């Protein structure tokens, strides 16, 4: 099963954007993510709609972060992606007649609901500035740069 990496990738990009005043083009972001500019524009649109980034067309244009990292939570970024499912589990029959399957579905559904609530609460409490501080702790004498870009 393929994992959805959009959340971690957007957090990565936002933290790089926060370190520069220069805009980042969709192509630059795509190179950073190993993706393509069309995909970048699609996922950045949710951040733009939420007021976390802005884009400018033309020469010298690109994407800029519009809020400080202490004003953006991981939950904000997650919601900008359309709040995708956190878990890939599903039911073979969502409305079964079998009492055993009804009980299994109820137990799994309750557990997933509880886990989802917990994760979203943690996402809401985690600010980009906290991740940024951890990056600084890891690389105290270097700029926030990745080995591959």
From TrEMBL:
- What GO MF annotations does this protein's record show? DNA binding; DNA-binding transcription factor activity
Q: Which residues form a coiled coil?
A: none
User: Superkingdom, according to UniProt?
Assistant: Bacteria
PROSITE patterns linked to this entry: HTH_RRF2_2
Spell out the GO cellular component terms annotated for this protein, sorted alphabetically and separated by semicolons.
Answer: cytosol
* InterPro entries from the UniProt entry: Tscrpt_reg_Rrf2 (IPR000944), WH-like_DNA-bd_sf (IPR036388), WH_DNA-bd_sf (IPR036390)
Q: Which organism is it from?
A: Cereibacter changlensis
Keyword annotations from UniProtKB, A to Z: DNA-binding
Q: What is this protein called?
A: DNA-binding IscR family transcriptional regulator
Q: Does the keyword DNA-binding apply?
A: yes
At the highest ranks, the source species' classification is: Bacteria, Pseudomonadati, Pseudomonadota, Alphaproteobacteria, Rhodobacterales
Q: Does the entry feature the keyword DNA-binding, yes or no? A: yes
PANTHER family annotated for this entry? Answer: HTH-TYPE TRANSCRIPTIONAL REGULATOR YWGB-RELATED (PTHR33221:SF15), WINGED HELIX-TURN-HELIX TRANSCRIPTIONAL REGULATOR, RRF2 FAMILY (PTHR33221)
Query: Where does the signal peptide begin and end?
Result: none
């Amino acid at each position: 099963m393929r994992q959805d990496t959009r959340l971690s990738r957007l957090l990565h990009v936002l933290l790089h954007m926060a370190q520069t005043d220069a805009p980042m083009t969709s192509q630059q972001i795509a190179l950073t993510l190993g993706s393509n500019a069309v995909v970048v524009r699609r996922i950045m649109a949710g951040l733009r709609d939420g007021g976390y980034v802005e884009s400018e067309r033309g020469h010298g244009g690109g994407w800029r972060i519009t809020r400080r990292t202490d004003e953006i939570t991981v939950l904000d970024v997650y919601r900008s992606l359309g709040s995708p499912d956190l878990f890939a589990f599903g039911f073979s029959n969502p409305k079964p007649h079998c009492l055993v399957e009804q009980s299994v579905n109820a137990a799994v559904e309750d557990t997933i609901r509880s886990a989802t609530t917990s994760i979203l609460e943690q996402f809401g409490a985690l600010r980009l500035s906290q991740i940024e501080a951890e990056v600084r702790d890891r690389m105290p004498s270097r700029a926030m740069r990745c080995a591959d870009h």
